[in-house]
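note to self — DONT lose this again. spent like an hour looking for the file last time. sequence + predicted structure for the chain T wanted, 419 res
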Amino acid sequence: MWNKISKWLKRLLYFVAFYALMAAVIFAWQMVSHRLSDPDADLVDKSELDTQNRLTQNAAIIEQVREFVTKNRTPQYERDAHSKPHGCVRATFEVFDTQAKYNYGIFKKAATYEAWIRFSNGSVPVLDDPKKDARGMAIKVMGVPGEQLLPPILSGATQDFVMINSPAFFIRKISDYLDLEIRTTQGKPFTYFLGDYYLNPFKWKLRELYLGLGTRKKPPATPLSAQYFSMSPYKLGPHEIKYSAKACEDIQAPGINRDDPNFLREAMKKVLKRQDACFQFMVQVRDPEARMPIEDTTVIWSEKKSPFVPIARVHIPKQEFDTPDQNAMCEALSFNVWHGVKEMQPLSHVNELRRDLYMHTAAYRNVRNGVHQDEPTSWCDSLSKYCDEPEPLEVIEPIVIEEEELGVEEVEAEAVIEE
C-alpha cells in the first residue's frame, strides 16, 4: 500500500516540477521577448477596420461593466473600480511659475485653484485596508480656464488627474481588457491570466499576471504618504507626458490600529485633524528616442532618461472631511481623465476607452442611485457649508525650475526647500 502511495506522490511531484519549470521558462520568454520588441508595434493600427473593432470592443466592455456594477451593488450602485473611498478632502492645486516648456493647459501660468481629492482602494468587491490592494488618488481641479475636451453638455471648467500607486498598467490591448471584464463579471478573473483550466502553459499570460500582482501593494501608513502615477500618457502642448503626485513627507499616524478594516480613513482623519499635508505634482516628458511607448501602458518610462519634474503642489489643509454630506457629495462626483482642456488631451487606446467607459458607468450608477452631480466650480458650489471659506490666492510666489541644470534629486530637493 505504501509503495503505491509513494509512487503516486512521486508522479505528483514530477507533475508539479514540470509545470513549475514551464512557468519559469514561459515567464522568462514573455519578459525578454517584450523587452526586445517594439512595445507599440502591434498596437498602432489606424485602419478603419481596426478602429471599428475597437469601438465594438469598447461598447462590449461598457456593457460588461454595467453588468458587474449591477451584480455587486450593496444595495447602492458602486464604481466598477476604486469603489471603497477613504474620503474626499478639500485641497488647493498650486501651479508654479515654471519654464515655458511646461506652460500649457492648467500649467500655463502660476495660479492657485480649489480642488477635491478622492482617495480609495482599487479592488471590487472591496477588500479590507490591511490587505494588499491598489490605492487611488483622483484630483478634480476646479475653475480651470481653457477650451474643454468634452462638449459643453458634459464638461465644466475642471481638470481631472486620475492616478494609482503603481506606474504601469497590466493590460496591453483593448481586446484583452474585454476578455478580463467578461471573466471578472463571471467571478473568475484569474482565468484571464492562466486559462480556463490553468493546465495549458501556452495560454498563460505570466507577464500580465506579474504586472497585475505588482499593482497590489501593502497599505501605506496613510493615503497622504504615498506616491501615485498616471500610468497612461497625455499631451502637454507639443509634448507627451506622464504625471505623478508624490507626498511631500512620509506622514505617519501613530496609534492607529492597522488591523482595522478601515484604518486608512481613520489615519487620514487623525493626520488632518492636527496638520496640513501636501504632494509634489510632477510631470515626466517623453523622450521619443527612448523606450517610452504611447499605446503600451505596461511599460514604465525610464526616470533616468527623463526624470519627473515638480511643476505644481497639492496643498491639503487641516480639516474634518468625514461627514455624511461630504461623503455623499464625494460618491456622486465623476472623475474622468477627459475632464480637462484640449492642451492636455489623453493619449492611447486605453484612454479613449476610459472616456466612454467612465462617462457611461458614472451616469448608470448615479441614475440608479437617484443622485445628480454636475461638474463643480468650487468648494462652495459643491457644499454650501464652504461658501464662507476665504477665496484662494490667484497667483503664488514664482518657483522657476531649471531641470537641465539639476539632477532629479536636486530638483526634488529644491522644490521642497522652496515650499
